[in-house]
Amino acid sequence: MLRTALVTAAVLVPVLAAAQSAKREVGTIRVTSRLVYVDVTVRDSAGNVVRGLTQNEFHVFEDGKPQQIDYFNAHVYNPSVPVARPASSLAFSNTNTSGSVNAVSVLLLDLLNTSTTEQLTAREQMLKFLGALPPGRPISLFTLTDRLQMIQSFTGSPELLTAAAKMLKPVNLGQMPSIEEVKQDKATAKEFDRESTRGGQTAMDGNVQTQDTDLDLRTHSTIAALNQLAHTMSKYGGRKNLFWVSESFPIALNTTQNCLGQTLPVDAFRLTNVLADARIAVYPTSVLGLYTEVAQVMAPPKCPPYGFDYFGRGILKSAMNDIANQTGGQAIFGTNDLAGAMRRNLDDSGNYYTLAYQPQNKKWNKQFRSIRVELSQNGDTLSYRRGYFAYPDNPQPLNPIQQLDAALQAESPESTLLLLSAKVDLPDRPGGSVMVHSVLDPANLGLITAADGHRRGQIAVGLIAFRETPDKPSNQPDAPSQSSALLNLDLDAAQYQAVLKSGVLFTQQLNLKPGRYRLRLGVSDVVSSRLGTLDMPIVVLAHD
After folding, report:
1. Which of 30, 55, 190, 352 is the most buried (most CB within 10 A)?
2. CA pair distance 272, 338, nearest whole angstrom
3. Phi, psi (degrees; rounded to nearest 5) at 143
4. Residue 214 to residues 29, 118, 222, 252, 303: CA-CA distances in angstroms?
5. Residue 301: pLDDT above 80?
């Protein structure tokens, strides 16, 4: 466990010694009043995101009753505007981003609900999307087969994401038939019908029963995967955008039954809350392109295999819009340029407004409560989650030191939810210290504005050295080769403006023997639970 010391930080933090011995421990953070967070994306009549709105222009209603907005933050992302970086000769950085990153994204390739033929299309479009991605946008890559699996953790490197995506191969789980297979089944059933009136019906009944069973299995597996994904993402603060790339979306939110009338597990009923608590906006992304066939005059099936006919496409679009509306995302549907549509929505998803309020209704009776957000002036379209179930809260305390300790382990992937740069000064004399001068970008910090106008927050910082030898890299640091502290930020207006220009500056030192090392710098924002890490390979030379 990392040792901690309490340090006051404004613009410049004093040097933190590696052998700090302060005994004051960092306590856990507990939330005693419930806040309902609502992330709102505003678009004008042309579909362009609207920036520059203020808190006074928003009005929030719960079950039709006005609520007082207790927290407001306008998030702006513009990839064409570079971020001003502190003017110093930086040696390392965990990002090369332009623009201001204020939301992370998850790319879920759903192979369970996508036929093998469409999986190839999904993989091709995903590679095209990642290939045109600018560096610095934190994205993680998951797949869903018979289980949820992380392929690449959060990274701002398009190269790492592309390399991970290239490893994906089509998987036939036997539960999602292709368009060709469905057409063949229909043709076989018609042939039986011509041979024997009852024979054709028997063949059709057997086919429908098989499809119903497959849908039931896919529905339960999908719900379990989304719940698991939401719990995984809940440890990261702020908004998360989930691009769910699939051919079929076999769930509906805020309901206890699927389209077959089958009762869904309790996890399905609570899925809306789980996604909302994790602040996940879902972007259902259909791999099916433009539909050009003439609509067939026939009754729509009860649970159609999406994409197989005109009615199936309509039901698919309705299901996707429902998922997007309930979570504050946007459905991506009916385009042959899937990669381009995802890129546009990714850029737009970084421009949003965060509202938070304490519900006036204190009765947690498990009933659904609707949320409505309005602007003082009408004409714009608002995307946000439409409500939540009032289940009793069971908050889990967050320990920033435990989070930081896990992020600093050798096997943990680099995290870019907080942007870091650092300059390393190597010792030029025997017994000298390695000095690491770090700069933390304040853009993603969860600073809270107090009544006196001060912006306050806490940041846990750590530095650890992993010594590498020619025979094998070491995954355990030398005992004294670590430094950690808890920075208390208490910034008045002038100090806050200075931090915006220079970043949060702090310096750490390590006493290292000659050799090759990999330094890992880590920061954990106590308020937002965001993490940032930076790896720095160095060589400490021997001096006579």
Report:
1. 352
2. 26
3. -125, 150
4. 44, 18, 12, 17, 11
5. no
Q: Which of 62-66, 126-130, 514-518 is most confident? A: 62-66
How many angstroms from the chain centroid is the CA of residue 423?
Answer: 29
When mean pLDDT is compared over 95-109, 304-318, 406-420, the highest value belongs to: 406-420
Bridge partners of 281, per DSSP, are 241
Could you identify the residue written with the tokens 């996508």?
114
| Three-state DSSP class for residue 451 | coil
Q: Which residue has the tokens 């995984």?
A: 232
Listed in sequence order, the DSSP H helices in 261-363 are: 266-269, 271-277, 310-327, 338-348
> What pLDDT, in 10s, does the model give residues 370-418?
999 999 988 899 999 888 888 776 555 556 677 788 778 765 656 767 8
**DSSP-assigned letter for residue 403:** H
- Report angle CA 267, 365, 221 to the nearest 5 degrees: 5
Q: Where are the beta strands (DSSP E) in 161-293?
A: 240-246, 280-286
Residue 264, Ramachandran bin (φ over 0: left; ψ between -120 and 50: alpha; else beta): beta
Task: Give the CA count within 13 Å in the CB-facing half-sphere of 324.
Answer: 23
Question: Which residues, at least 6 apart from 177, have a Cβ–Cβ distance to it below 8 Å?
Answer: 115, 185, 211, 305
Strands 240-246 and 280-286: parallel
Name the CA dihedral angle for 254, 256, 258, 261, rounded to a multiple of 10 degrees: -140
- 9, β-bridge pairs: 489
Q: Could you tell me how far CA 334 lies from the centroid of its own chain? A: 25
Lowest mean pLDDT among 24-38, 335-349, 465-479: 24-38
Q: Which residue is listed with tokens 């590696």?
A: 18
The pLDDT of residue 3 is 31
No. of helices (H) and no. of strands (E), the chain: 10, 24
Helices (H), 59-146: 116-131
Terminal-residue alpha carbon distance, the chain: 35
Confirm if 64 and 373 have CB atoms less than 8 A apart: no
Q: What is the pLDDT of residue 404?
A: 82
Structure tokens at 208: 């429908």
DSSP string across 105-119: EEEEEESTTS-HHHH
The helix, strand and coil proportions of the chain, stated in percent and rounded to the nearest 5, come to 25, 30, 40
Both tokens assigned to 316: 């698919």
Average pLDDT over residues 493-506: 91
pLDDT for the residue numbered 479 = 43
Amino acid letter at 335?
Answer: T
Q: In terms of C-beta density within 10 A (0-12 exposed, 13-18 middle, 19 or more buried), how is residue 81 classed? A: exposed
Of 525, 506, 230, residue with least CA distance to 403: 525
